Amino acid sequence: MLAAVGTLYLVATPIGNLEDVSPRALKILQDVHMVACEDTRHSQILLRRYEIRAKHLTSYTEFNHKRQVAVLIGQLDRGWDVALVSDAGTPALSDPGEALVAAAVAAGHTVSPIPGPNAAIAALVASGLPTRAFTFLGFLPKKTGQRQKLLGSLLAEGRTIVVYESPYRTGDLLADLAAIAPDARVVVARELTKLHETFVRGTAKDLAARYASERPKGEVTVVIAPADRDARGEHAGESDA
Question: Residue 1: inside a domain, yes or no?
């Protein structure tokens, strides 16, 4: 039985392969009163696959989340249990679910994570690059100058960098990285857990050349190795100039 007071459950869902959902996640999705979805049509695919029916589904997106936070907190206040899901992976990580979690905590509600698939962690651990210390940033700025400045600063910190990127901007990201750290080791991971899962490894310079004329298909996660000690000194000098 779920708790008698309203609880917000953050339910991780598959990033591609529907078999990656956990039994606990399915039980929560079956038991809660409402499921808040990034795209209700997309979430219905998972719910139908596992015969989870008669759910109150509501949309919670980048475009309506400011209004929906109040609505969902109201449901929690009335004692409803609410599951938050994204289209793929762990909700509230680099998405508008962050605002709902903050509001639920502020209102005194229990927030319970139901862990599971995450593209950033999947790409990192399979990349072959250092995993002991890393920085995850979600999506980088779209403008070249801002992106190069941020990348230079991060490379100087000596941690592996993990970012999400649109397939339409992957080439631009790699070109910006190659301009400041051409020999940086990079892994471009796409379509993780899906039929056409691919890891492309190389230097920033080599991958920038490849993706200048080739657009990757599907969801993309980019993993960048930390610079060595000498390179970090060079980047630090550049940022101080």
Answer: no
Looking at the fold, whether 182 and 206 belong to one and the same domain comes out as: yes
β-sheet bridge partners, residue 221: 164, 189
Last residue of some domain: 114, 148, 176?
A: 114
Per-residue pLDDT in tens (0 to 9) along the chain, 241 residues:
454 589 999 999 999 999 999 999 999 999 999 999 999 999 999 999 999 986 799 999 999 999 999 999 999 999 999 999 999 999 999 899 999 999 999 999 999 999 999 999 999 999 999 999 999 999 999 999 999 999 999 999 999 999 999 999 999 999 999 999 999 999 999 999 999 999 999 999 999 999 999 999 999 999 999 987 544 444 444 433 3
Do the beta carbons of residue 93 and residue 122 sit within 8 Å?
no
Cα–Cα dist 47/241, whole Å? 54
